[in-house]
Amino acid sequence: MMTEREVLVNQLDGEFKHRIAERMGNRDFMHCLACGSCSASCPVRKLEEKYNPRRIIRMAILGMKEEVYRSEFVWMCSYHSTCLKRCPQGVNIGAVADVVSRMAEEAKRQKVEPADVIEAEELDRGFKRRVIAEVAEVGRCFTCGSCTAVCPEQLFDPTKDPRRFIRLVNLGLRDEALADEFKDICATHYRCLSRCPQGVQISQIMSAIKELAIEDGYSYPESLVELERGEAGTMKTV
User: Fold this and answer.
1) Do 74 and 68 meet the contact criterion of CB atoms below 8 Å apart?
2) Which of 12, 88, 115, 182 is most buried, most CB within 10 Å of its CB?
3) Domains of the chain with bracketed CATH
């Protein structure tokens, strides 16, 4: 009986690593010793342990093409190059992730489920430009997750994710961004700004998005209206 960790030899693609090397223009990633220095220093892994660069490189070398294509790591790698600085073999994992993600797109093996696929016509390129006109730093975000790691709102509700919100803006997902409650509950602690390596002013972005939401006719989220009504009802008068 097979376990989840067993892989049949006939399921491996022996040419997969060579196609990656050809795209990269070198075979450096095949020199990986699986020492784990990359995983130990990966900032994405600090947020989510399942993102394991050592494991991804190992699977690529073994020819586990489908598993690599389905891995979220190749899409979430933020290209800090911390792994490259620590790697004794000089393996550029960020470059591997970039090449593999492109190969996955070409093979139509995106990590998202078909129901979650976003068509190009759904993206509003002008929306990002409108936000940049108010807060230029929004385009600097490289989704490292430092903001999410220190956001107080995340402690109460994991769905309130500043990294995800900024990503919506940069992708041009206007409707999703304007309808997201996170813009209305941001408490402007500025912890995100203090940790952001790019100096992205997330609180200012939230303010700009709220103004755009009003301009575009979006109403204040009903769930927050009900919450405020409830809080007002419990306040004591002196």
Assistant:
1) yes
2) 182
3) 10-108 (1.10.1060.10), 120-232 (1.10.1060.10)
